[in-house]
Each structure stands twice: as structure tokens, then as C-alpha cells.
Automatic annotation (TrEMBL):
Name of this chain's protein: Glyoxylate/hydroxypyruvate reductase B
Species this chain originates from: Cyclobacterium qasimii
Domain of life, per lineage: Bacteria
Family per similarity comment: Belongs to the D-isomer specific 2-hydroxyacid dehydrogenase family. GhrB subfamily.
InterPro entries associated with the record: D-isomer_2-hydroxyacid_DH, D-isomer_2_OHA_DH_cat_dom, D-isomer_DH_CS1, D-isomer_DH_NAD-bd, NAD(P)-bd_dom_sf
A Pfam family per the record: 2-Hacid_dh_C
Lineage summary: Bacteria, Pseudomonadati, Bacteroidota, Cytophagia, Cytophagales
PROSITE patterns: D_2_HYDROXYACID_DH_1 (PS00065)
GO molecular function, one term: glyoxylate reductase (NADPH) activity
Stretches assigned to the D-isomer specific 2-hydroxyacid dehydrogenase catalytic domain: 9-320
Enzyme class at the top of the EC tree: oxidoreductase
Amino acid sequence: MKVFINKVIPEIGFKLLDEAGIAYTVWKEKPILDRGQAIQFCKGHDAFLSVGQAGLDADFFRECKHLKVVALHSVGFDGIDIKAATENGVPVGNTPNVLNKATAETALLLMLTVARKALYLHNKIKQGEWGASQQPTQDLGIDLAGKTLGIVGLGRIGTELAKIVTQSWGMKILYHNRTTNAEAEKELGAKKVSMDELLAGSDVVSVHTALTSETKGMFGMEQFKKMKPSAIFINTARGGVHKEDELIEALQQQIIWGAGLDVTNPEPMSKDNPLLEMENAVVFPHIGSATKETRDKMSTCAVENIIAGLKGDPLPYPVNPEVRQGK
């Protein structure tokens, strides 16, 4: 049994594969594999551990229906044709619940960095603009303590963020969900409201929803105009949730005060994107899970899915559990 891995994963993953006696091939070169190259590698292997591989569409799964398992080194699977995988009998697994705290911390970091214009001011130092001539009314940020945080998608990650800001800064929580989060309401005083109420009442709006047909492009000019002019927009979910051209316009016209993004559309972002030069915007290169501890956990989950799939056992972290194992 052999597994193909399209990027170098944390060492703990290789250790688990070695202990299980599973051979593997790792693509270590810098150029990212395209779909055709990935298919060719997968044809010579029994399993595929995918680290952000693009092109896992219907054609991929028709060509690679022999695979006993595809293990994603991620929580999200919106870029994967799960229906095609299921139709071709390929079980797919992901890495759920391992990056909740890390992603919540990233949202918090974006909130702070935007609110205090920290990155913009850091760059001013590099340009030699930190001096005695600076006025006390210049380059001021805004406080977050005691303000209202609106969370769109109060699931595990959103709840982690809510815990931090309520316990540390006394922030109030509004949230918009399809379902009620009774635990967050009881423990954190979170209040479920309509989307319009959340937009109008929040000082910071943080998105933690999956990318679906319903949420794609859900934040555009119409929504930004409903927010406070002093509000900050944060997205650590998926770039497709916001309309980037309209976000740029909203910032340029001072319709909202600022924005912090860990996700963009497309990724990677062009180096010429106007957001990178704005005083009131901060962009991270999708670092939500980028801590050693979290990536180790992700690698462990992905390899556990590989081992189970190659044994013909149910995946411990399945995306399409309806696929029968043991083919």
C-alpha cells in the first residue's frame, strides 16, 4: 500500500505512516502540482493525502476511482467535489475540530491589528516617519473593550472567539445562525438576531461560516452599508464569502472603518491588490491553522484517515461516511 502526499507535512504524520508500515511518495518541489500531474501520481498509489490540492473535481475522481481514501489536510472541503467522490466510491476525510482555538486567535489578532492600525504604523516606522513631529490626533485607533462583536456562524470557532472577548474585554455578543446556540446564550450572554440587526448593532463583524451556495458573496456593498461607519469587518472563514471588489470600495469610501482578512478570493492574492496598501486593511496569507501544535494535530488526523482507509475501516473523520469501505 502506498500513499501520495502532495506537500511536506509535519514530521509526526510521517512517523505514524512509518509505524503503520505504509510507503509514501512526497512531492517536495516548489511548483504546485496541477490536476493532471496529481492524477498521474495518484494512479500509481492507493491513497492520496491532499494538502490544498486544486482540481479535485469530477474528472479527478473518475480518473482516480481506484483510490481507497483521499485524506484532506484541512477542515474545509468546499473545493472538493464530494458528490463525485461518493459516486465513484472514494471515501474522503478531513481534520475537524483541531484548529478552533488557532483560528479564533487569528480573528482576534486581525481585530487588534486593524483596530490599532498596527501594521500600517509599523510600515511608517520603516519609512522613517516616526518622529517628534507626530500630532496627538494623528493615526488613532479604536478601543474594542466593551464594544459589540457580531458573529456570523457561531459554531466552534466563533464560540472560542466569543469566549475570549467576553471574558477579557467585556464585549457583548450578537450572532446570526440558522440554529440557536443555547450554550453560548447561557454562558456568554450571546443574543441571536437577524442579519440586519447584527450588521446595524455590531462594532466588529466576524465571519465564521462555511462557504456554500447560500453564503457565497453574502457580504457585499449592500451589507457594508448596513454596518456602522466605525465598524470593522473580519473574515477568517473563506474568501468567497465576501465580494472583494465591493469591500475595497467600501473601505475607500469610508463606508466601514476597517477590515481584516485571513482569506481572500482568489488565493494567493495579487501583490497589486489595493487592500495591501490601505491604512485601514490588514491581510494575512491564510494562517488560521498555522501553529505547530495545530498543524501537528491536522497531520495526525489526516494520517489516521489514510491508515483506516487503507485497512478498509471506516474513516475516523469522514466527509462522506455513506461510502462503503473495504473496496
